[in-house]
């Protein structure tokens, strides 16, 4: 059995404070027996939703507080505490690229053995591209609790993202996100972005027969109202633990990673891979020109 904890984080733009909050929640999760703790997108430095308003000070700050991974001072603080606690930790950050002036929206995986790996967000929104360079790979990492693949926020709106990770062998799909409410509707039961968040989490799990773990900010940050809803979804698409909307905290569940996948495979999961027809997906493969282009 594996214990997974996912955080609905009260965000800030103070990196020292954010690091402290990460470590405190890591310690609380470890005390509850957690093997894996998940945090939101850019949780280390704070995600600014007002990128969309072209605020140059936010963009400037993202470059100023970016760190190397591994090697950055706060990255190493989290890695050291993860080793001491014996837990795997996934969190988001502004990552310095190898080329001067380039930064990435990155999810970092660190654990009992130290730095394990990182994923750079592939689907970067048009306003986000003012700041972050796009990643171009879908790595899957072998760990003591299973094979982990990561995607970030906007990535989950593409079924290809989770399917690529699944085909590469991922057992657990982990998604740090910075997902806020659509403006004009303050009711989380009817807000369209809240509905889509719930839908995508469950659909990505069910269509691949894999565990899906999301982590989001909770509350106001940078002008956006973040919805929380950090969740653990089983391979059949059922939510087994959630923080609920808006309130910071941890959702924790003890799960059987391989058993859950085996159960859904016995029902239908294996067929979702076996019965694919990639030879017919001509528009997806580029052999046929798409009829629409956004």
Shape: globular
Count of helical stretches = 8
Alpha-carbon distance between the termini?
44 Å
The CATH fourth-level homologous superfamily: Carbon-nitrogen hydrolase
Which ranges are low-confidence, i.e. pLDDT below 50, for 5 or more consecutive residues? none
In this structure, how is the largest beta sheet organized?
A: 14 strands, mixed
Please give the CATH class.
Alpha Beta
Number of domains: 1
Bin the strand percentage.
25-35%
Radius of gyration: 18 Å
Please write the string of helix (H) and strand (E) elements.
Answer: EHEHHEEEEEEHEHEEEEEHHH
Return the structural class: alpha/beta
CATH architecture classification:
4-Layer Sandwich
Question: Would you kindly provide a written description of the structure presented here, covering whatever features stand out?
Answer:
The chain has eight helices and 14 strands. With 294 residues, the chain is an alpha/beta fold. It has a single domain, classed as 4-Layer Sandwich (Nitrilase/N-carbamoyl-D-aminoacid amidohydrolase), CATH 3.60.110. Strands 1, 2, 3, 4, 5, 6, 7, 8, 9, 10, 11, 12, 13 and 14 form a 14-stranded mixed β-sheet that branches. Strand 10 and strand 11 form a beta hairpin. Helix 1 runs parallel beside helix 3 (73-85) and helix 4 (159-167) packs parallel to helix 5 (192-208). The longest helix is centred in the N-terminal third of the chain and has 17 residues, at 15-31. The radius of gyration is 18 Å and the shape is globular.
């Amino acid at each position: 059995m594996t214990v997974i904890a996912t955080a609905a984080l009260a965000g800030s733009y103070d990196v020292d404070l954010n690091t402290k909050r990460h470590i405190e929640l890591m310690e609380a999760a470890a005390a509850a027996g957690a093997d894996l703790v998940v945090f939101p997108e850019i949780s280390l430095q704070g995600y600014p939703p007002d990128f969309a308003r072209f605020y140059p000070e936010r963009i400037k700050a993202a470059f100023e507080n970016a760190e190397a991974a591994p090697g950055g001072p706060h990255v190493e603080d989290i890695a050291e505490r993860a080793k001491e606690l014996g837990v795997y930790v996934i969190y988001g950050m502004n990552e310095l690229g190898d080329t001067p002036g380039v930064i990435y929206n990155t999810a970092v995986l660190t654990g009992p053995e130290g730095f394990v790996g990182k994923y750079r967000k592939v689907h970067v929104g048009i306003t986000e591209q003012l700041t972050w360079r796009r990643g171009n790979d879908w790595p899957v990492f072998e760990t003591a609790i299973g094979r982990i693949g990561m995607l970030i926020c906007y990535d989950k709106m593409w079924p290809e993202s989770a399917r690529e990770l699944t085909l590469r062998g991922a057992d657990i799909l982990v998604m740090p996100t910075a997902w806020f409410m659509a403006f004009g509707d303050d009711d989380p039961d009817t807000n369209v972005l809240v509905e889509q968040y719930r839908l995508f989490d469950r659909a990505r799990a069910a269509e691949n027969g894999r565990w899906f773990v999301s982590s989001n900010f909770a509350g106001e940050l940078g002008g956006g109202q973040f919805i929380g809803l950090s969740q653990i979804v089983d391979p059949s698409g059922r939510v087994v633990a959630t923080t609920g909307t808006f309130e910071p905290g941890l959702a924790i569940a003890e799960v059987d990673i391989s058993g859950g996948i085996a159960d859904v495979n016995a029902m239908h999961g294996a067929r979702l891979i076996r019965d694919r027809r990639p030879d017919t997906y001509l528009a997806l493969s580029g052999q046929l020109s798409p009829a629409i282009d956004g």
